Amino acid sequence: MRFMDRRDAGQRLAGRLAGLKGVNTVVLALPRGGVPVAYQVAHALGAPLEVMLVRKLGVPIEPEIAMGAIAEGPEGGEPVVVLDEATLSALRISPTEVDRVIAGETRELDRRRRLYRDGRPAPDLAGKTVILVDDGIATGATMRAAVRAARQRHAAAVVVAVPVAATQSLARLAAEVDEIACLEPTDTLVAVGYHYVDFQQVSDEEVMALLHDGPLPADKRPPPHPPTGMAS
User: Fold this and answer.
1) Phosphoribosyltransferase domain location, by residue (predicted)?
2) What is the DSSP letter of 61?
3) Residues of the chain with pLDDT under 50
4) What is the torsional sign of CA 81, 87, 88, 91?
5) Is 230 part of any domain?
6) Is residue 37 part of a domain?
7) Is residue 62 part of a domain?
8) What DSSP character marks residue 104?
9) Could you give the number of structural domains in the chain?
10) 126-157 pLDDT tens trace
Protein backbone atom coordinates (compact mmCIF):
# COMPACT_ATOMS: atom_id res chain seq x y z
CA MET A 1 0.00 0.00 0.00
CA ARG A 2 1.28 3.46 -0.91
CA PHE A 3 -0.30 6.81 -0.06
CA MET A 4 -0.19 9.70 -2.49
CA ASP A 5 0.88 12.12 0.24
CA ARG A 6 0.28 12.90 3.91
CA ARG A 7 -3.08 14.49 3.13
CA ASP A 8 -4.28 11.29 1.47
CA ALA A 9 -2.97 9.25 4.40
CA GLY A 10 -4.73 11.52 6.90
CA GLN A 11 -8.05 11.30 5.10
CA ARG A 12 -7.89 7.52 5.05
CA LEU A 13 -6.79 7.36 8.68
CA ALA A 14 -9.70 9.60 9.68
CA GLY A 15 -12.08 6.99 8.32
CA ARG A 16 -10.57 4.38 10.64
CA LEU A 17 -11.07 6.73 13.61
CA ALA A 18 -14.66 7.78 12.83
CA GLY A 19 -15.94 6.06 15.98
CA LEU A 20 -14.18 8.69 18.12
CA LYS A 21 -16.17 11.57 16.66
CA GLY A 22 -18.10 13.37 19.37
CA VAL A 23 -15.90 11.95 22.14
CA ASN A 24 -13.96 14.36 24.40
CA THR A 25 -10.97 14.11 22.07
CA VAL A 26 -7.86 16.11 21.23
CA VAL A 27 -5.64 15.28 18.25
CA LEU A 28 -1.93 15.73 18.89
CA ALA A 29 0.43 15.65 15.91
CA LEU A 30 4.08 14.67 16.16
CA PRO A 31 5.82 17.41 14.16
CA ARG A 32 6.71 17.95 11.62
CA GLY A 33 5.60 15.09 9.39
CA GLY A 34 2.62 14.13 11.53
CA VAL A 35 0.96 17.53 11.28
CA PRO A 36 -0.53 17.28 7.73
CA VAL A 37 -1.83 13.79 8.60
CA ALA A 38 -3.31 14.92 11.91
CA TYR A 39 -4.91 17.98 10.30
CA GLN A 40 -7.16 15.71 8.22
CA VAL A 41 -7.99 13.57 11.25
CA ALA A 42 -8.85 16.53 13.46
CA HIS A 43 -11.12 18.12 10.87
CA ALA A 44 -12.94 14.88 10.15
CA LEU A 45 -13.56 14.28 13.87
CA GLY A 46 -14.35 17.91 14.70
CA ALA A 47 -11.59 17.78 17.31
CA PRO A 48 -8.98 20.39 18.27
CA LEU A 49 -5.54 20.01 16.70
CA GLU A 50 -2.32 20.61 18.61
CA VAL A 51 1.22 19.28 18.65
CA MET A 52 2.99 16.87 20.96
CA LEU A 53 6.56 18.08 20.82
CA VAL A 54 8.98 15.17 20.46
CA ARG A 55 12.52 14.67 19.21
CA LYS A 56 14.49 11.60 18.31
CA LEU A 57 17.77 11.13 20.18
CA GLY A 58 20.28 10.16 17.51
CA VAL A 59 23.43 8.16 18.13
CA PRO A 60 26.31 10.69 18.36
CA ILE A 61 28.37 9.22 15.51
CA GLU A 62 25.32 8.32 13.37
CA PRO A 63 22.40 10.66 14.18
CA GLU A 64 19.98 8.81 11.88
CA ILE A 65 20.09 5.82 14.25
CA ALA A 66 17.78 6.32 17.24
CA MET A 67 19.02 5.62 20.75
CA GLY A 68 15.82 7.02 22.25
CA ALA A 69 13.59 10.07 22.20
CA ILE A 70 12.35 12.95 24.32
CA ALA A 71 8.93 14.57 24.57
CA GLU A 72 7.74 17.70 26.31
CA GLY A 73 6.75 17.07 29.90
CA PRO A 74 4.09 18.76 32.04
CA GLU A 75 4.03 22.57 31.88
CA GLY A 76 7.31 23.83 33.32
CA GLY A 77 8.56 20.29 33.96
CA GLU A 78 11.41 18.21 32.64
CA PRO A 79 11.03 16.45 29.28
CA VAL A 80 10.06 12.79 29.17
CA VAL A 81 13.08 10.69 28.15
CA VAL A 82 12.90 7.22 26.59
CA LEU A 83 16.20 5.40 26.01
CA ASP A 84 16.97 2.23 24.09
CA GLU A 85 19.27 0.49 26.54
CA ALA A 86 20.20 -2.22 24.05
CA THR A 87 21.49 0.36 21.56
CA LEU A 88 23.36 2.28 24.26
CA SER A 89 25.06 -0.91 25.42
CA ALA A 90 25.85 -2.28 21.96
CA LEU A 91 27.41 1.01 20.80
CA ARG A 92 29.00 1.78 24.18
CA ILE A 93 27.48 5.23 24.36
CA SER A 94 28.44 6.95 27.60
CA PRO A 95 26.02 8.79 29.92
CA THR A 96 27.92 12.01 29.12
CA GLU A 97 27.26 11.57 25.40
CA VAL A 98 23.59 10.82 26.07
CA ASP A 99 23.26 13.95 28.21
CA ARG A 100 24.86 16.06 25.47
CA VAL A 101 22.39 14.80 22.86
CA ILE A 102 19.45 15.30 25.23
CA ALA A 103 20.56 18.88 25.89
CA GLY A 104 20.74 19.65 22.16
CA GLU A 105 17.33 18.16 21.41
CA THR A 106 15.79 19.90 24.42
CA ARG A 107 16.89 23.21 22.90
CA GLU A 108 15.13 22.23 19.67
CA LEU A 109 11.98 21.33 21.64
CA ASP A 110 12.08 24.78 23.22
CA ARG A 111 12.52 26.43 19.80
CA ARG A 112 9.54 24.61 18.37
CA ARG A 113 7.44 25.35 21.45
CA ARG A 114 8.06 29.08 21.04
CA LEU A 115 7.49 28.97 17.28
CA TYR A 116 4.45 26.71 17.07
CA ARG A 117 2.59 27.85 20.18
CA ASP A 118 3.52 31.54 20.14
CA GLY A 119 2.99 31.92 23.86
CA ARG A 120 -0.04 29.63 24.14
CA PRO A 121 0.11 26.99 26.89
CA ALA A 122 0.26 23.31 26.07
CA PRO A 123 -3.22 21.79 25.71
CA ASP A 124 -4.90 20.41 28.82
CA LEU A 125 -5.10 16.64 28.36
CA ALA A 126 -6.62 15.72 31.72
CA GLY A 127 -9.64 13.45 31.30
CA LYS A 128 -9.49 13.52 27.49
CA THR A 129 -9.01 10.90 24.81
CA VAL A 130 -5.72 11.81 23.14
CA ILE A 131 -5.07 10.71 19.56
CA LEU A 132 -1.34 10.79 18.80
CA VAL A 133 -0.74 11.03 15.05
CA ASP A 134 2.44 10.65 13.01
CA ASP A 135 3.10 9.92 9.34
CA GLY A 136 4.57 6.52 10.25
CA ILE A 137 6.40 4.53 12.89
CA ALA A 138 9.77 2.86 12.36
CA THR A 139 11.53 2.20 15.69
CA GLY A 140 8.69 3.73 17.71
CA ALA A 141 10.99 5.69 20.03
CA THR A 142 9.37 9.09 19.47
CA MET A 143 5.87 7.66 19.72
CA ARG A 144 6.68 5.88 23.00
CA ALA A 145 7.95 9.18 24.42
CA ALA A 146 4.76 10.91 23.24
CA VAL A 147 2.57 8.23 24.82
CA ARG A 148 4.33 8.52 28.16
CA ALA A 149 4.13 12.32 28.04
CA ALA A 150 0.37 12.12 27.43
CA ARG A 151 0.00 9.74 30.39
CA GLN A 152 1.98 12.12 32.61
CA ARG A 153 -0.48 14.85 31.64
CA HIS A 154 -3.38 12.66 32.83
CA ALA A 155 -4.98 11.70 29.52
CA ALA A 156 -7.99 9.45 30.13
CA ALA A 157 -7.15 7.31 27.08
CA VAL A 158 -4.34 7.30 24.54
CA VAL A 159 -4.82 6.24 20.93
CA VAL A 160 -1.90 5.90 18.50
CA ALA A 161 -2.92 6.56 14.88
CA VAL A 162 -0.55 6.18 11.92
CA PRO A 163 -0.84 5.30 8.24
CA VAL A 164 2.07 2.82 8.30
CA ALA A 165 4.20 1.18 10.98
CA ALA A 166 6.60 -1.65 11.70
CA THR A 167 4.69 -4.48 13.36
CA GLN A 168 7.43 -4.97 15.97
CA SER A 169 7.11 -1.36 17.06
CA LEU A 170 3.32 -1.62 17.23
CA ALA A 171 3.63 -4.70 19.44
CA ARG A 172 5.83 -2.81 21.89
CA LEU A 173 3.43 0.14 21.95
CA ALA A 174 0.34 -2.01 22.45
CA ALA A 175 1.03 -2.52 26.16
CA GLU A 176 1.15 1.25 26.76
CA VAL A 177 -1.91 2.52 24.87
CA ASP A 178 -5.65 1.98 24.79
CA GLU A 179 -5.96 1.60 21.03
CA ILE A 180 -3.82 1.53 17.89
CA ALA A 181 -5.12 2.51 14.46
CA CYS A 182 -2.70 1.62 11.67
CA LEU A 183 -3.71 1.29 8.04
CA GLU A 184 -0.60 -0.58 6.93
CA PRO A 185 1.29 -2.63 9.53
CA THR A 186 4.30 -4.26 7.90
CA ASP A 187 7.02 -6.71 8.89
CA THR A 188 9.39 -5.27 6.28
CA LEU A 189 9.49 -1.53 6.90
CA VAL A 190 12.65 -0.15 5.32
CA ALA A 191 11.66 3.52 5.57
CA VAL A 192 8.36 5.30 6.17
CA GLY A 193 8.86 7.42 3.04
CA TYR A 194 8.76 4.33 0.79
CA HIS A 195 5.04 4.07 1.53
CA TYR A 196 4.30 7.51 0.06
CA VAL A 197 4.44 8.72 -3.52
CA ASP A 198 5.10 12.27 -2.25
CA PHE A 199 7.06 12.44 1.01
CA GLN A 200 8.67 15.85 0.80
CA GLN A 201 9.86 17.45 4.01
CA VAL A 202 7.31 19.47 5.99
CA SER A 203 8.41 23.02 6.84
CA ASP A 204 7.86 25.02 10.01
CA GLU A 205 5.73 27.40 7.93
CA GLU A 206 3.44 24.57 6.84
CA VAL A 207 3.12 23.33 10.42
CA MET A 208 2.09 26.78 11.65
CA ALA A 209 -0.35 27.32 8.78
CA LEU A 210 -2.08 24.02 9.53
CA LEU A 211 -2.16 24.59 13.28
CA HIS A 212 -3.78 27.98 12.75
CA ASP A 213 -5.94 26.68 9.88
CA GLY A 214 -4.65 29.35 7.54
CA PRO A 215 -3.17 29.40 4.04
CA LEU A 216 0.47 28.57 3.50
CA PRO A 217 2.42 31.56 2.14
CA ALA A 218 2.69 31.36 -1.66
CA ASP A 219 6.49 31.04 -1.65
CA LYS A 220 6.30 28.17 0.85
CA ARG A 221 3.64 26.09 -0.89
CA PRO A 222 4.70 22.67 -2.17
CA PRO A 223 4.27 21.89 -5.86
CA PRO A 224 0.82 20.61 -6.89
CA HIS A 225 0.05 16.97 -6.09
CA PRO A 226 -1.82 14.47 -8.20
CA PRO A 227 -5.49 13.99 -7.23
CA THR A 228 -5.96 12.42 -3.82
CA GLY A 229 -6.01 8.65 -3.94
CA MET A 230 -3.86 5.62 -3.38
CA ALA A 231 -1.38 3.83 -5.56
CA SER A 232 -0.57 0.17 -5.17
Assistant:
1) 19-195
2) T
3) 214-232
4) negative
5) no
6) yes
7) yes
8) H
9) 1
10) 999 999 999 999 999 999 999 999 999 999 99
